[in-house]
């Protein structure tokens, strides 16, 4: 993509309204471009339309007319969620028109150094944690991207002495060309979103676009234990820092002594360590002091520390954020305790790895609520986790019967299947009530679906909110 001011007087089509589309449209309009915003939704579902029209921006709603994309269009900016198979995207590509996401636009509008964070699991927790650490280091962070604030909307107003911290999805990264963060992190890669990408290869390639324009002046932070991250290291020109809770690393963050090291147990005192590029090790904090539970949150903490240090923070500035940060909504979020039973909302667990990590965060006696959108998975990798840690299960959504079968194979006897599929509120209420019946003092009820939410809920956030509402109605 060219610099945004070079599109003065040229035609730009923005596909998908929402927050990010509206911000992009306003930015290009202010720069003198002829902007058309298109969304297939009807007008009553597009509250931003009137504001855009008042500015003189053309808004086309209710479908994608054939005349929308033509050879006079200079650029298409699409909402990340719109698939590349969509007709207007295919028309643009066939005409040789560049198609980008608002992340690419924001990059050209931003003066400040950028940190980019991606991965299949842990992005939001790690991104938020990095923001807290950079606040402690007085590096003036601004957190945006997939975490909720469109980058293109805030990019022009960010001062050069600030630091932008972006959570980035594969959907967003796929539509970038020039985007270059100064620090970039890949947390992990598991099989997911293949309904959008079509193949694991495209999914991985989209993630790796985060590093495509980095140089030896930049720093890439990678998970030393993830197979895809190991392959990624071979394709990256930036200096590589690593993080690991299982082994020491040459440069980056690690746990000392490592988990699984000879002679250690789960009760062994451990420390978060940083080894700098000069080979000097620094102790940051004891693992027991980290404010979030679970081994996977130790990995998130290690990643966040490495990213913050790469951005200029000092080791002594990270201890307090590690202690004080208590997590993000819908990610192992404590809801309440009632009659000796604890309730946790982990609605963001939209794949099996996320649910495995959640189950590992607790010692056992879990009543699990799981199930959701059917993407053709068999979920058999969950069997050992169900056997070891799950006392009872309530299944719901399109995969409810598959989850029931997996639970039976794991030897579970206490199983309830929620057959309601056309009323999400009633379904989640039934799931919570049945989970309460299974629970005894000392147990915990965990919503960790291992599936996307779109079979019944508009988002994982709405699924989590409805779960919490149902929990708070219990007496």
Automatic annotation (TrEMBL):
Catalytic activity: UDP-N-acetyl-alpha-D-muramoyl-L-alanine + D-glutamate + ATP = UDP-N-acetyl-alpha-D-muramoyl-L-alanyl-D-glutamate + ADP + phosphate + H(+)
Enzyme class name: ligase
Keywords: ATP-binding, Cell cycle, Cell division, Cell shape, Cell wall biogenesis/degradation, Cytoplasm, Ligase, Nucleotide-binding, Peptidoglycan synthesis
Keyword Transferase (UniProt): no
Protein name: UDP-N-acetylmuramoylalanine--D-glutamate ligase
Lineage: Bacteria, Bacillati, Bacillota, Bacilli, Bacillales
GO biological-process terms attached to the record: cell division; cell wall organization; peptidoglycan biosynthetic process; regulation of cell shape
Gene giving rise to this polypeptide: murD
Documented EC number(s): 6.3.2.9
Main localization of the protein described in the UniProt heading: cytoplasm
Domain Mur ligase C-terminal: 330-451
GO cellular component term of the entry, any: cytoplasm
Keyword Cell wall biogenesis/degradation on entry: yes
GO molecular function: ATP binding; UDP-N-acetylmuramoylalanine-D-glutamate ligase activity
InterPro entries linked to this entry: Mur-like_cat_sf (IPR036565), Mur_ligase_C (IPR004101), Mur_ligase_C_dom_sf (IPR036615), Mur_ligase_cen (IPR013221), MurD (IPR005762)
Stretches assigned to the Mur ligase central domain: 117-308
Listed NCBIfam families: murD (TIGR01087)
Species for this entry: Paenibacillus agilis
Sequence positions that bind ATP: 119-125
Family recorded in the similarity comment: Belongs to the MurCDEF family.
Pathway assigned in UniProt: Cell wall biogenesis; peptidoglycan biosynthesis
Residues that span the membrane, as ranges: none
Localisation: Cytoplasm
